[in-house]
Amino acid sequence: MNDNMVTRAATAFGLVVLCAISILRVTRPPSPVPATAPDTVFSAERAMHHVEAIAVRPHPMGSVDHDRVRDYIMGQLTALGIKPQLQVTTAVGTRYQAAGRVQNILAWIPGKESNGKALLLAVHYDGVEAGPAAGDDAAGSAALLETLRALRARKEPLAHDVIALFTDGEEAGLLGAAAFVREHPWAKDVAFVLNFEARGTSGRSYMFETGPGNRDAASLLRSARDVTAGSTFTTVYRALPNDTDLSEFAVLGVPAMNFAFTDGVERYHTSHDDLAHLNPGSVQHHGLQMLALAKKIGDGPLPRPQTGDGVFFDMPALGLIVYPVGLAIPLALLALVLTVVVLRGSFRAAGLGAGAMLIGLLASAGVGRLVNPSGPAMWSGLSALAVALIVIAINAIAYRIAHRRAPDAWYGALVLWLLLSLITSIAAPGVSYLFTWPLLFALVAARSRHPIAMWAAATVTILILAGLAFSVAAIMLGVSGTGAIALAVVVSLATWLLAPLVEQALGAGWRGVATVAAASVVVALFAAVRAKPSPEQPIPTALAYVENPAAAQAWLGTLGPSNAWTRLALGAADQGPAWSGAVIGVGGRLIGKAVGPVGLQPPTAALLRDTILEGARRVVFRVNVPKGTTALTMRALGAPVVRTAIDGKVADTTRFRRHPRTWAMLYWAVPDSGAVFSLAIPVGAHIDVEMAWRSPGLPAMAGVQIPPRPNDVVPAQIGDVRVGYAKVTF
User: Fold this and answer.
1) Nearest Cα to 527, choosing from 403, 669, 338, 379?
2) CA dist 730 to 605, 625, 637, 686, Å?
3) Burial class (CB in 10 A: 0-12, 13-18, 19+), 63
4) How many folded domains does the chain comprise?
């Protein structure tokens, strides 16, 4: 083996190792701590006992198991010497058209120097109807119980008070959090919020969302040490139409941080979100951060000093790096000065390189756009690797062509990276570190041409970008659509910034590029073969039996895309009647087959008042549903609804995510006495109100045999349900 081959192999090996380190450090949670650890230490093994008790069965609002979980948590708080209380009230959501009878569990742990301000530690204890919710959010509930136990084991309490809040109805539309913020007297005492969530069953607990002025909060996060966080997550999340309980806590206007693990998203809201699939290391990471921050915040000043937003990101050995957003533009200007110094006399070559890089970027984005794996392949690391390899090959070709025409074509990459640094520093400073810091190191390397400087630039670039790109594509969004495009663009950018090292790894001829391209095809084929439905990556399904007793009609259909199992269960599928799907969230008619009615009891509505008030007709009626109902869906047709009150509480629609033309409401855990609705409509108008209650499980249907689900097909979201329908006219 000659010296060139050794250099190529060493360079390629070094780049691969850096990529592996970057990916592993953002995907692997810490090892769980055993129950034999000291009492003041968070132990995932101890916390998992709580998960085991909570995640026995699905426990949505309105179910018997929901109340079992409620009683378990209250019993555990009492055993810790903490007096719990219940906030039982009708909650009306402010983000979605939802309401329900919530039962929030609260506990106040007094501090030794209490000034009336408290740290709020929040999780939710309800789950979806389809699964036992081990990750979402029994893991959070268990972590909070274990954190409280560790805090109680300290020789002395924290300086400030702590409020422990186990919200109800998060899955139903953030209902418990809304009720706490709007109605509970303790809400005015909250000075800082930590919320813990999950969107999967494994992975590290990312800090992905903050409240206003997050530089101080990010600085506090440094005390947790082993963290995965970046102001990129918080910047992007603010623009997304996603919510957790923190969306309701945001009304309090206090500093906040939101945490969640997201790996194993294919098991999210399914029956496989269970104890067997939950990674104890993810619970450990939740708890490490919860306990460390509780101590740091609880023993620090409250209220916290007000700051602006910060730019922050984590790096190996250095921990969390935090600086004010005001430094983003000066750093970008420093990069501008260095770029001018480096490019002096090479502007033509830089222009040629920039053009070639733009072509490579567009081609890479096109590859990402064309990638469209479905099911398990979307979440495969092999799919991500295949995309990365083909993008490297494409951009290596573009660079090589430009480099042969102008030896300094690499400088074009520096120019485009500078533009990205300047743009993000002005428009989205929380994202600017992704471009500014790799560029600064690359500029030093371009100026010195020293191998150490080149490898320093590679280290910073890969450690910042590789893990982020992998986690966004293979864990959060999937290697398809937006996720694949983001992955392809980031790989393209990094390939150009590190072009001299990439070129060195591939060698002077075309064999290296061809090898990478061929490897991408092999990996893609291998990913396609391996990424088949399995118990680890199951197919989500849900069936619904809906019955309209007034019309003596019943229908059995699927609530999602059809697959081999649903086709076997339903046979030749057809569209159901108009009433069959829209009121249970299908967005149209249920797809399935007509079946014989089993005699479900319909929901009933009794008119209480019909008056003219404030220039509108106000129709007030009570709806009752059979026992065992988890949720009631309602829809009004025929006239616009201008105001709504539920159980006497006016619905605030100013913060709604969406404002659909048709009035609809989802009411959870309907009390035995019923739910009272007040709808204001134009004077002289009338409305038809469609109502549909649902409860878990399919009834026995004459002549219908539902085959058992294979182990790679699982109930998801609301799962299999029975639905009773009725319509009334006012």
Assistant:
1) 379
2) 10, 19, 11, 6
3) buried
4) 3
The two tokens of residue 139 are 């893991």
Kindly give the residue spans of alpha helices, DSSP state H, lying in 371-481. 381-405, 411-427, 433-448, 451-470
Q: Are 690 and 602 in contact (CB under 8 A)?
A: no
| 223 occurs within a structural domain | yes
Share above pLDDT 70 across residues of the chain, in percent, rounded to a whole number: 99
Q: Are residues 122 and 187 in the same domain?
A: yes
Residues 568 and 676 in one domain: yes
Q: Give 189's DSSP letter.
A: G
Query: Do 204 and 349 reside in the same domain of the chain?
Result: no
pLDDT digits (tens, 9 = 90+) for 118-176: 999 999 999 999 999 999 999 999 999 999 999 999 999 999 999 999 999 999 999 99
Q: Judge if 300 and 435 occupy the same domain.
A: no
Give the pLDDT band of residue 102 (cuts 50, 70, 90).
very high
Distance CA 174, CA 245 (A): 5
Show the beta-strand stretches assigned E in 61-124: 84-92, 98-109, 118-124
pLDDT tens readout for residues 534-544: 888 899 999 99
Residue 375 has pLDDT above 80, yes or no: no
Rounded to 5 degrees, what angle do the CA atoms 162, 55, 209 make?
Answer: 45
Residue with tokens 């708890």: 287
Residue 284 sits in the same domain as residue 300:
yes
Name beta bridge partners: 198. Answer: 261
Instruction: Flag whether 319 is in a domain.
Output: no
In this structure, are 513 and 594 located in the same domain? no
- Pairing outcome for strands 675-681 and 649-650: unpaired
274 in any annotated domain: yes
Largest Cα–Cα separation, the chain: 93
Q: Are 165 and 180 in contact, with CB atoms under 8 Å apart?
A: yes
* Residue pair 537/266 in contact by the 8 Å Cβ criterion: yes
- Alpha-carbon distance of 576 to 597, in angstroms, equals 14
User: Cα separation of 342 and 346, whole Å?
Assistant: 8
**165 closest CA partner among 252, 266, 234, 233:** 252
Helix (H, G, I), strand (E, B) or coil at 245: coil
Considering the domain architecture, whether residues 71 and 197 belong to the same structural domain is answered as yes
Number of other residues whose CB lies within 10 A of the CB of residue 10: 12
pLDDT, tens only, 668-720: 999 999 999 999 999 999 999 999 999 999 999 998 999 999 999 999 999 99
Residue among 214, 263, 232, 209 at smallest CA distance from 468 = 232
Structure tokens at 11: 């360079």
Residue 583 near residue 690 (C-beta atoms within 8 A): yes
Total count of residues recorded for the chain: 730
pLDDT in tens, 567-592: 999 988 888 888 887 667 656 788 89
**Structural domain includes residue 187:** yes
Rounded to an integer, the average pLDDT of 28-35 is 97
Give this prediction's pTM.
Answer: 0.95
471-521 pLDDT, tens digit each: 999 999 899 999 999 999 999 999 999 999 999 999 877 888 999 999 999
**Domain around 469:** 3-25+326-530
| Domain closes at, from 530, 551, 583 | 530
Helix (H) or strand (E) holding 257, with range, is strand 256-263
From the CA atom positions of the chain, what is the Rg in Å? 28
Burial of 190 (0-12, 13-18, 19+ CB in 10 A): buried
